[in-house]
Structures are given as C-alpha cells and as structure tokens.
Amino acid sequence: MSLARKILLGFLFVVIPMQVLAWNWRTKISLRLNNQPLSTACEIIEKEYGIHFSYSRDVVKMNRLVSLSAKEMPLRRVLDLLFTENGIQYKRIGDQLVLTVKQSNTRTISGFVEDAQTGEKLIGATVYFPKLQVGTTTNQYGFYSLTTAKDTMSLMVTYVSYSPMSIPLKDDVNKQMNIKLSPINTLQEVEITDQHVPPLQEQTQMSKVGMPVAQVKAMPRMLGETDVLRTIQAMPGVGGGMEGTSGIHVRGGSPDQNLILLDGTPVYNSTHLFGLFSVFNPDIIKNVDLYKGAFPARYGGRLSSVVDISMKDGDMHGYHGEFSLGLIASRVMIEGPIFKGKTSFIITGRRTYADLLAQDAAIEALKLGDGEFWAYFFDANVKINHIFSPKDRLFLSGYGGRDNMRVKRDKGFDSLNGAAKQYHERMNFGLGWGNQAYSLRWNHIYNPRLFSNVTINYSQFLFDTDYEYKFEAQNAIMESDSMYGRYFSKVQNAGAKIDFEFRPNPLHTLRFGAQATWHIFQPGITRFTNVSDSTRLTDTAYNNTTNKGVELSLYWEDDFKLADSMYLNLGTHASAFLVSGRSYISVQPRLGFRYLLPRKWAFKLSYTSMTQYIHLLTNNATFLPTDLWVAATKKVPPMFSNQFALGLAKTSNDNMFEMSMELYAKTMQNVIEYQETADNFQSATNSWEDNVVVGRGWSYGSEFLLQKKKGKLKGWIGYTLAWSERAFPNVNNGAVFPYKYDRRHDLEVVLTQQLGKRWELSAQWEFATGAPLTLPSGSYERITDPSPHLPPSTVEPRDVDVIGNRNMLRMENTHRLDIGATHTKERKGVRYILNISLYNVYNQKNPFFYSYKRNEETLKRELTKFSILPILPSISYAIKF
C-alpha cells in the first residue's frame, strides 16, 4: 500500500465516526429528552450516531411525547424505552431501523352475564377459557372483562343452577358480549357436573362466605319465615346473641360493628319483632356476601364484618309474582317490564298479623282488663332498572319498614271496705322503630376493561316510644296523678360514591374510588311531664340537639399475580371524619396473600386495619332496641381495630368438597360501654359522654368449615373455638372480663337432601357454650312502704343485690335441632311450594335470661331460668307464577 493511500484511510478513521461505518445492538447511546416527540429522538440518534430510521408517517404516530435520560446505555435498551413502551415495533434491515405499528396478540371480551328468561344480572358467574384454564367472575353488577390470546377458540360461562354455555369465538377483535344463561328447572333431577366455580385455593380473598338465596330458602324456618341473617349465623365465626334472634356478631365484635349494605346503602337496624326476624325479604334478594375479615379496601366504617346484600333487578321480559302465606306473616312479590327489554320493576311487601292472632291471649296474660294489645311489623321493597345503552344502566331502589307495639290498660280497683271501684288506673304505652334506605346507581362501561358505578344513597333509622299514665281516686279528696313521657332517637346519612374497576388481564384487577357521607345524629330526646294533685307541674326535655358529621374516604386495591404460585391483594382505605370542630384522619392498609402449595392446597394470610367513627350505646338492662347511635367526639374517639388471619383452603378435584381452616386475632381500641351507674334517662341527656367508659377489646380463635357443594345431599359442618374479652378503667375494677358475646365453642351442622323431583328435606343442629353471666355475689333486705296511690297492701321486705364481678359465670350450654321439608310442584307455569318446619324438635329449654325469684314455700330466693322458645311447628304455602 502506498504512503498516500495509508494517510487517506487514517484520515477517514479520524474524521468519520465509527458508528456510521458500523453499529450493533450494544452501541452505547447517550440521550436526554424532556416531553419531546418521538420524531425528535430519531433525529438526534440519526445525527449523533448515524443510525437511520425508516417509517410511514401515516401508520406510525411519531408525535407521541416522551421523556428519557440515558447515558452510555445500550442501543436496544434505548429503543425498547422509546418504541416498545409505546406500541411500536422496530426491526433492523441492512443499516436501517424500520418502524411499524405493534400488532397486539390479545383481545378483550367483556359484557354482562344475565338470566335468559328475566334479564336479571348474575353476580359471581364464572367466565373462563377452558383451553387456557384462566378466567374471571362477574362483579356485583354482573359485569365481566377477560383478556386473552387471539387464537383462543371458545369461551365457557357457568353459574350455579343454570345450564353452562360454551361460546365459539370466530373473530379476534375486542367485543362487548352479553351472555344469557338459562336456569335449570329445579323440579327435574339434573346433576350439574361441569360447573367451573373458582376453587377456594384460586381465590386470594379469605374470610369470605357467599350465601346463595336458594340455600337460604332451603333452611328450616321459624314460624314459616326464611331468614338471611339466621342462615349467616350458621357459619363459623358468626353468632346470634340471644336465643332465637336473627342479629349477628362476628369474631367477638358487637352488632354495631357490622356494616350491613342493601344495594350499597347501610341499614342500621337489621331486625324485626324484637330480633326474631331480619328486615330482608328473601323474595327480593339476589346475592349475599359475608366478609368476616380480610376486608377489601373498598369497604370501610365498621370493625367486625361486612354483609353485602344485592336486590334483584326485575324481569325485563315477562310478568311474574309470588304470594306466600305463613303462620305469622304473609309476603307478596311482583316483577315485570315497564318497557320490554329496556325497563323493569320489582316490588315486594310483607306484614305480620301476630297481633291479630295473639291479642286476646296477650290481654289476659298481661292483665290489661278492658285494654288493648297489638304488635306487628311491615316492610316493602321496590326497584326499577333501566338500560339507556349497552354501556349505561340506571338502578333506583328503596326499602321501608317499621315495627309497632301498643299496650293499653284500663282497670279499676276496689278498696278494702268493699266499695265499688274507687280507684281507676289508665296506662298507654307505645313502641316503634324502623328503617328507610334508598339508592340511585349508574353503571357505565368506558371500554372493555374499565367499568364504573356511581351511587347516591340515603339511610335512616328511627326509634320512638311514648307512655302515658293516669291514676284517679274517687273519694272525698279526689286524688289524681298523671305522667307523660316520650323517648325519641334518630340517625340519618346521605352519601355519594364512585367506584372504578379495571381488569388489564385475567390475573390482574384494580379497583379504586371515593365516597362522601353526611351523618345526622339525634341521639335521644326525652320529654317528661308530671301532673300530681292538679297543683304541681313538671315539664322537662333533655338533649333536644342535633349533631352532624362528614365522613370522606378514598381507596384503591390491586389484586395481581406476584410470581408463580404467589398472588397478592394490596390496598389502602383512607378516611377522614369531621364533627363538632374536630377532625379525625385514618389510613387503613389492607393485605391479602395467597401461595399455592403442593396437591392444590392454598396458604392464605391477611392483615386488615379498620376504623369506625360511630358508636352504638347499648343498655344491657333491657331487651328493647333502645340503642342510641352517636358520633365520635373529642372525649369519645373513634374505634379502630387490627386483625390478622392465616389459613389453609382446598377444593377437591371433582369440586364436590371445600375445606377451609383459619386462625385469627383481632385487637380493638376505644370500644365503649355504659358506666355501671348509668340509666336510660341519664344516657339520653347532653352529657351521654359522661355516662360511658372507653376501653379495649380482644378476640382470637380458630374456624373450620367443611362443605359438600354437589349431589343430592349437600350441606356443611362449621366449628369455632373463640375468645372475646373487654377491659374498661371503671368497670369490673379495671380487670379484663369475658365479653357478653364470648362463646368458647360453637358447632353447626346443616344438611339438605333432595328426594325425588319434588321433595327437599333440611336439618340444622347447633351447639354453643353458654353466654357469660353476671350474678349478685350477695344481698340484703330493706323494708319499703307501699305507695299511697295504690290499694293498701302489707309491708314486704325488698331484696337489694350486691353485684359481683362482670361476666364471671356462664349460662347453660345451648343446643337445638330444627328440621324442615319443602314440597314443590308445577302446573301450567305456576309453581306451588309447601314448607313444613319444626323449630327446636326435642323441645330443649335453652336459657333466655336468669333472675332471682322468691320461693313461696321456703321464702328463699332461687335462681330461675327463663326460656321463651319451645318446640314450634310452622307451615307456609307459596304460589309462584
């Protein structure tokens, strides 16, 4: 090579960058962009490094703004950050980079799953791809979203008691697909073998129980009434309090710590007839979910549980109804279209006539003379559902119910000398309480993966009692005495919230939203008037005030696959409460973890923090619902809890059996209790804060549940081993004592057996450790004089008790067997349903309460057990058309 040629080549190597002559994927690139178009990035790389780009401006959108800071970064990494993240593919052809639009290999199928006959949206229906064994379930509005590979050929949809459906997918585009499932005729002996309900080990959520309505209606009935809450009581970790009542307490918590939602609206008092029945008419209920712990971040405001109840939407295509006649109550339900395929309605009503049947017996038992007695409840539900478009639906729902009781006595007394009716006594006592709950909801689908629900709601609970007493002595002095009193309590809330649900793929669900609630409390107004001898007048009113508070909350929760066999649910519920010039702020983290073990076992773990800004003041001295709802104040702060749970879960290979075991521990701060010296009138004054004490609570235990889900014989066995304790500075000398709902052992066995095409038998047996009990540790006698306004009587000693330590004794253990039989037949499209039930089959006399009673022979006081619910047969008859 000549010298001149060598000099020329050396000059070229010096003045021409090496990148122009040759580049590879490891070529180092330094680049800084701050919200600049992709086209600018290409220009800089081409100018600085001689790398040329080729693309069609009509196809590839290069005006997207990007930000990037790269220093000596490999070329491929830079290109991934610039193009791959923005849906653009790149490929080297010669010395050029050719850019094209990235072609997605996935598609999203979304829509609603509904009843083919009525248009009712199905909650919890399973939508999955059999080939890939991945799927999802519909949310509480019946919506699903499922993203998968384009080459997936078929979709399977299943729901309990409905015929499964396989849907071929002929194209590969995103689409909204509303799926209609046909219900299986329950009179036919059909064995469903291909239901694909997600096994327990595939659900990250723990401490949750789904309650099918068919399961509720199959349970043995008390006095002919099916009851959602009494069915929930049969689950481990859930108790019912007093014998025969339908209220619930969960994992050692009190009844006010349960958030009970009806179509997203809170219900403050959930029982009728002094707790014997719940306020929820089973004819309008579509779905019930119970959360005992591991609360999703979308729920807040209570410490112990969430009972989420959804009402039916109403038949979009035809008119249907049901009428049921029972021993103490009758029900009616009517549903149908207002505009076919567009608007539907459903209405239910229920009333008891126990007052009509038992009035004479009650008058005689209460010695009312010429007086009156009546007690009844009624409730009604209504819901309207309208479809504006395939992406927009509107729901309007309402509930109203009330209990009323009235006792009147009109009686005369004779004096000792035999004169006729010189004394006259009149008494009038009334008691009533009731709920109202209304909601307006709008569902909207933004795109196949994003769904939202906007809710506006209002709820109210009212308690009202009044009494009037008048006494007259028809003699020369003409003595008279009269009193009038009224006790009134009310709580209201109005709220608005928005919830979003985003499903990018079958293994990832993101939920987020916000809520604002306006609370109004009237915690107890007492008015008292006394007129004696027509000379003295006392007219006093207490606590005629209204307290208001605002509760605000934000939440997000993310359920996703963390790694192979590991799944995580993370979330946070942040809230604030503004009341009486004071503000409280709470951040409540939520965690759920699931790990798949060998042989299809799942290990689950959860942590939940909850805050409750309202309190329920409960008077232990009465069984009436005289409870007061009050807001947290400067002196009485909000309650909060921390709950840990871990467990194992498994579904058998044939989906026949499900088994779960859980251990839990919960701590509670700022729980309240009346002081031992407080009474009803003191608690209703403005100084109710001075009559309560603030303390701590603990509950911990284990739960076991074995369910048989398929076959003619179905049912479950549930067992709970639990402890629940409380401690207050000025109660029980500050020592820890068992809480009144502490039950050490609780065993439930529930079975249903299908006999032929028309008969279904059911049985429920329960056993529970006796409830804690406080009894006097001693007593002494005090002589009292008779009232001058009553007929003369002999002077008798009065026993005064010395109360012992709180809840140091226990009532007897309780157990009971209930059975039922349901016969169903159908003629010309009309279904006739007869139910015969027997409550407390072997007439077990379980204690309702204990008291001391003086023995007439020995003149000594003896502890007496009172039982109120003996063996109770019942029958009900329903016609469904």
TrEMBL record:
<dbReference type="InterPro" id="IPR012910">
    <property type="entry name" value="Plug_dom"/>
</dbReference>
<protein>
    <submittedName>
        <fullName>Secretin and TonB N terminus short domain-containing protein</fullName>
    </submittedName>
</protein>
<keyword id="KW-0472">Membrane</keyword>
<feature type="domain" description="Secretin/TonB short N-terminal">
    <location>
        <begin position="51"/>
        <end position="102"/>
    </location>
</feature>
<dbReference type="Pfam" id="PF07660">
    <property type="entry name" value="STN"/>
</dbReference>
<dbReference type="GO" id="GO:0044718">
    <property type="term" value="P:siderophore transmembrane transport"/>
</dbReference>
<keyword id="KW-0998">Cell outer membrane</keyword>
<dbReference type="InterPro" id="IPR011662">
    <property type="entry name" value="Secretin/TonB_short_N"/>
</dbReference>
<dbReference type="InterPro" id="IPR037066">
    <property type="entry name" value="Plug_dom_sf"/>
</dbReference>
<dbReference type="Pfam" id="PF13715">
    <property type="entry name" value="CarbopepD_reg_2"/>
</dbReference>
<keyword id="KW-0813">Transport</keyword>
<dbReference type="Pfam" id="PF07715">
    <property type="entry name" value="Plug"/>
</dbReference>
<dbReference type="InterPro" id="IPR039426">
    <property type="entry name" value="TonB-dep_rcpt-like"/>
</dbReference>
<keyword id="KW-0732">Signal</keyword>
<dbReference type="GO" id="GO:0015344">
    <property type="term" value="F:siderophore uptake transmembrane transporter activity"/>
</dbReference>
<dbReference type="GO" id="GO:0009279">
    <property type="term" value="C:cell outer membrane"/>
</dbReference>
<dbReference type="InterPro" id="IPR008969">
    <property type="entry name" value="CarboxyPept-like_regulatory"/>
</dbReference>
